[in-house]
Amino acid sequence: MRTRSVGVSRGIYLRLFVATISLGAISRARAFVTTGPDDELFATGVASAQVNDNLFLSHTDEKTDEIFDLVPGLEFDYGKNSLTKGTLSVNEDIQLFASHSSLDTGLTNAVFSALYDDSKVKLNLDATFHQVDQATLQVNQGVLVKRDLYHVDGTGEIALTDKTSVSAGAIYDDTDYLKTGYTDWQWVKFPVNYYYEVEPKLDASAGFAFQNNQLSSGGLNSDEYFYNVGARGQFTPKLTGQLYVGYEQLAFNKGGSEGGLGVDSNFSYAYSPKTTLIFGINNDFGFSALNGAAYRLLSPSVAVNAAVTEQWKFSAMVSYGRYDYITTSELDNFYNGQVGITYLLNAYCSLTGSYGYLEDISNITAQSFTQSLFTISTNLKF
Fold it and tell me: Which of 231, 256, 273, 375 shows the smallest number of beta carbons within 10 Å?
């Protein structure tokens, strides 16, 4: 009976997949509803098929499956030519598994962003809600665990003089696992930065950030302090980005602390008019979903985006994560790589094929794994 059910689901999905591609091929770059000269409402859709050779990121007895996603949604863009502009989008990710139909699910996602900029005052507000149901480095116990991810951040910056400005913000983040045995992580962060223009389009900075971490069963609550200096803006005609480096301390509420170098950076380098390199390195703290154990995470990454032609786009990415646990002896070296090619049917519809590879090499043998992902998808907005 299950085979028949999956076959029917896949047949329906295939017809929807083809219909999405066909609709995108004939659609034009225009919203289906406009509520004003600066406001547009779009329908969005993603259809994808993926082959995953290690569904649960297991060390042994890997399970392979085909996963089909259909993601219908709506996107409202407002204030396109105004001082205040933003986006609100909502979608539902319908996931179907060819061999593990008991894992079929629906995942809700919502994103809101708003920006105000009058050259002297800048205000940013972002809020997201995502549901996730996939294995990760720390959620790989032979099952998929659904969790709700909440994130809200707001930042304001005001110019004090022609060369100086100050910014302050508040960030809230919450990961709730919808299954017992995992550690929820809720944190609030308050960053403050002072900027001084050292040359046109380049600012030096000095800043401080305080973060409070609240963990459910198995974890120790803590506070983080990040004292930093840095720079942001255009470093060369081709290199832009930001770098914050300094001393970061993690202090557990029940005693004990860990400190060291803290780094937060990201850069974009225009190698050529059609090729851009994106790279960065971060070094900060995090907490395990399995037992709430704290770790130090060093994570450099490099990506390239290239326009081969007006319609063909190429992308590639490699990243590394060193998870050095503070309260246990575990050490994980996590590698991630991906290559993809995209064909633009028109301004609002594209087809993408990609291959991704994950590998974790851990000093705890049972935690090590590899995974390969082959994905074909179409993205539509009209």
Answer: 273
Structure tokens at 239: 């290199």
Q: What residues make up the domain containing 368?
A: 2-381
Domains held by the chain: number: 1
Environment class of 344 (CB within 10 Å of its CB; exposed 0-12, middle 13-18, buried 19+): middle
* Furthest-apart CA atoms within the chain: distance in Å: 72
Phi, psi (deg, nearest 5) at residue 366 = -65, -15
Residue 12 sits in a domain whose CATH number is 2.40.160
**pLDDT (average), residues 122-148:** 94
> For residue 89, which of 43, 146, 20 has the smallest C-alpha distance?
43
**Position of tokens 């105000």?**
116
- Whether residue 50 contacts residue 67, with contact meaning beta carbons closer than 8 Å, is answered with yes
pLDDT in tens, 286-327: 999 988 999 999 999 999 999 999 999 999 999 999 999 998
Give mean pLDDT, residues 347-364. 95
